[in-house]
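Record type: monomer structure entry
Structure origin: computed from sequence
Chain ID: A
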Amino acid sequence: MALRVCGRLLRGGAVLPGRLVGAARQERAACLLPAGTTACSRGRRHGFIFTPACFITSEAFLSGLMKGKAAETDGSIYHLPASVPPDSSEQVSLLLRHPDQPPDSKVLKVAIIGAPNAGKSTLSNQLLGRKVFAVSKKVHTTRCRALGVLTETDTQIILLDTPGLTTPSKVKRHQLEKSLLVDPWNTVKEAHLMVVMVDVSDKWMCSGLDFEVLKCLAQHPHIPAILVLNKVDLVKAKDRLLDITDQLTCGVVNGRRVRVRPVIKPPWAQKKPESTSELSPDEDTAAPEDGAKPTSALSKEKLKELRSQQGWPHFKDVFMLSSVDREDVETLKSYFLVAAKPGSWQYHSEVLTDQSPEEVCTNIIREKLLEYLPQEVPYSMTQSIELWQDGENGELDISVKLYAKKETHMRMVIGTAGQTVARIAQEAGEDLSQVYLRNVRLKLSAKIKK
């Protein structure tokens, strides 16, 4: 395996490879994290050369790569990712098939958590190689827990994509599904590894971890967690990422102190919100209606302690990446492959997701509604599949009716001369064709919900 590693093994054992996989960009250099301090390589303009996806402190990762545990990048055969059968019965049969695991099989369940709109579903789609989870710029795109399966050679990675962590009062205020409140917490319980995603392009998000995220980490301290700083391509001053890392990790990564000493404290670091939660302590811990379970079992003393901290000092590793960059995500995928432990597979290697074909379809359509409709309009719309059948030439014909609460909403969906609904149908159909590996003819119509 041809593997170039432009980094150094430091005396303290901390590692920051500048090029973990042979496909890395040549102009990038590595930040080095020796024990007790944070250093960075010098660039010509700003004194900092940044390497996305390579901010790693674990020796096990690099040694695993050197032993050939990760996928080879040179001379290997590229395997197409799995797909979703367009027939529901076929998908159910596939989910029930006995796993075709090798004798030395390994498995890793990864729960991806974070505040709404941190890029969790985008990362999952990139890891899987196909778009099976809805993605949009609006919050609460993912409405319930969804599962993706990535199988390579002897290893199966199960990605648990969760809704953004929120509070009971927000669910009640915005009339959101109770799944947004319960699913993330239930999902974390079955994970082997937690991935906490933070949008570093949002100055409020990167000033401190979301309080709901801190509660989740504190409630499951036995589950290893890594921090992923996402959307680094939108951050112009790359040296700022070191300060963000120091803030969100409490200056401790993998049990070692990491100190960042900027010459001049940037203005953005001075202004921090008094609390990462918009609600009072009573509102944050209040149980939702309709018998839903409370999201936290932490004591009041522990909750008070969490409110006073802005980061989590128990992260095993930190990654800086852009989830839309395939190269960056490949490095994180290699990390997962190395972190996998011996164990039985849960699914057959041809399984891509546990969602039904219809669920994938409605989620992709909802993504387009969120993209093209303003404000609260897409959140109030519902869907009903009217037709799902094979066409004469092997294509898949799908007809979906969209229900709007108001006539004004319906007119927005249809658009001038039907242009909006036609565009949504075209783009959603193209995405579904990539998932089903079939030509999809999608027809959308709108109606007022009575």
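Annotation 1: The first strand starts at residue 31 and ends at 32.
Annotation 2: The two ends are 63 Å apart (CA to CA).
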